[in-house]
Specification:
The protein has about 500 residues and is of the alpha/beta class. It has 17 helices and 13 strands. Bound molecules: pyridoxal-5'-phosphate.
Length: about 500
């Protein structure tokens, strides 16, 4: 008979009636009749069937569960497009200071001086990096930054009386998926721009699409193919000549920060993903921050309140802005995320910001060079901060897919890279494997990754079933991902009385 360690069981399975972590003292206040106190509220007929366990069992259960998880603190996490860089502990240590944790956004302005100064400083840094004069920190994610940017652009055209005619947003097929989704949500019609043979913008095609009905182009630079768009200045000229705006998805600023300023080549509006580029931890949906930077003609439309430095050196929150699009997030956005980005950037300084970008690009190109010939490379030329391999070779030779390879990486304690993104339509039908090492990894870790990827390529040839059935070291082996999304079982059978 198999012996199971109780720490490997569900809490419901080890639950025993009456077991407690904590016993409350006898009631020393008058007893309240809950039904009476919550009159009109739907109450449970009987108590919820919660597991009853002792403290030690509870601690072991969650400690062991935590160890089964992947995190940048424990594993290499080259999840392309997500920039899973290490988050220095000092970010959280300083954010835990009572000056931050006990501050309330409704404090009078006089007591918020340090906080407003921090926001003004962070805005100034992002402004310097983007080459654009005004920034708002309010959007809580990259996608919300995109939405805010398009709302600002719409408000600008409203003011000029052109918003009824400018209905189209042009989006290259190598853009991040949130770009077309945002444009549609913002009420625009999206027009897909097919890339040229190199995966860049086809200028002639763009010229043929831009017209008086164009509101903007949304371009992800570097693109999701991990390559830089070489013709940004020309693209900006084409749009501006037609009175349209150039929006840049700057979530991939890790590749160009401190080296190129988007405002200098004509970008009118862009967003940052602080939770990618400036180390704010993210995953599972946040909390993050997606500030936008804009050219001066778009500044009047930014969300309120605007943190400002007054002539006498004091700080205030400016709400008297007649053309503002209003608020896009409560109070000042995800303030904790802003504080962490501020701490991270202040540690780096100007030189450090640039060095991060250079090292992120160097690391991605190192992996590209070392794995050339082992895996097919979508665009085998200098890449930005991420490199896109595909499963073309392994698929053709051994019927092994990007998903199989990604699953096998788990057995080597490496988080799988992003797969099937960019979409097969952009990768010539092959399964993409998008690797983003970030600047925070050592050469030893990168070399380990290379050796693992070579070993897996060898396994694909010699023992394909091993790869097809991976992972083998996890509590549950290959799961049926399709059913997990199309027919999710979101209940615990043990909880159903
Ligand atoms: C290039 C790019 N644009 C936009 C986004 C959307 O950002 P968020 O997930 O914060 O909404 C991401 C997310 O990683 C991204 O990589």
């Amino acid at each position: 008979m198999a012996i199971t360690n109780p720490t490997d069981k569900l809490l419901f399975e080890v639950s025993a009636d009456g077991r407690r972590c904590l016993r409350l003292p006898a009631l020393d206040v008058p007893k309240v009749d809950v039904k009476q106190a919550l009159k009109g509220v739907k109450l449970r007929a009987k108590p919820a069937p919660l597991p009853e366990v002792g403290e030690l069992d509870l601690v072991r259960h969650f400690t062991n569960l935590g160890k089964k998880n992947f995190s940048t603190d424990r594993n290499f996490y080259p999840l392309g497009s997500c920039t899973m860089k290490y988050n220095p502990k000092i970010n959280v240590t300083l954010l835990s200071l009572p000056g931050f944790t006990k501050a309330h956004p409704h404090l009078p302005e006089a007591d918020l001086q340090g906080h407003i100064e921090l926001m003004v400083t962070l805005e100034n840094w992002l402004s310097e990096i983007s080459g654009l004069p005004a920034v708002t920190l309010q959007p809580a994610a990259g996608a919300q930054g995109e939405m805010t940017g398009l709302m600002v652009i719409k408000a600008y055209f409203d003011k000029k009386g052109e918003s009824k005619t400018r209905r189209k947003v042009i989006i290259p097929d190598n853009a991040h998926g949130t770009n077309p989704a945002t444009a549609a949500l913002a009420g625009f019609e999206t027009v897909t721009l097919k890339g040229n043979a190199e995966g860049n913008v086809d200028l002639n095609l763009l010229r043929s699409l831009v017209g008086p009905d164009t509101a903007a182009m949304m371009i992800t630079n570097p693109s999701t193919l991990g390559i830089l768009e070489p013709n940004m200045a020309e693209i900006a000229k084409i749009l501006h000549a037609a009175g349209a705006q150039l929006y840049m998805d700057g979530a991939n600023m890790n590749a160009i920060q401190g080296m190129v300023r988007p405002g200098d080549y004509g970008v009118d509006c862009m967003h940052f993903n602080l939770h990618k580029t400036y180390s704010v931890p993210h995953g599972s949906g946040g909390p993050g921050a997606g500030p936008i930077a804009v050219a001066s003609h778009l500044e009047p439309f930014l969300p309120t309140p605007r943190p400002v430095r007054n002539a006498d050196g004091s700080y205030s929150l400016d709400t008297k802005r007649p053309d503002t699009i209003g608020k896009v997030r409560s109070f000042f956005g995800n303030y904790g995320a802003l504080v962490m980005a501020y701490i991270y950037m202040s540690q780096l300084g100007r030189e450090g910001v640039r060095r991060n970008g250079e090292n992120a690009v160097l690391n991605a190109n190192y992996l590209r060079a070392r794995l050339r010939g082992v895996y097919h490379i979508q665009n085998d030329k200098a890449c930005a901060h991420e490199v896109v391999f595909t499963d073309k070779k392994q698929h053709t030779e051994n019927d092994i897919t990007a998903l199989d390879i990604a699953k096998r990486m788990i057995d080597y304690n490496i988080h799988p890279m992003t797969i099937y993104f960019p979409l097969p339509a952009v990768t010539g039908g092959d399964g993409a494997m998008m690797v983003e090492p970030t600047e925070t990894e050592s050469k030893e870790t990168l070399d380990y990754f290379v050796e693992v990827m070579k070993k897996i390529a060898q396994e694909c040839k010699e023992n394909p079933e091993l790869v097809k059935n991976a992972p083998h070291t996890t509590p549950v082996s290959r799961v049926d991902e399709k059913s997990a999304t199309t027919n999710p079982q979101l209940y615990c059978p043990m909880c159903i009385a």
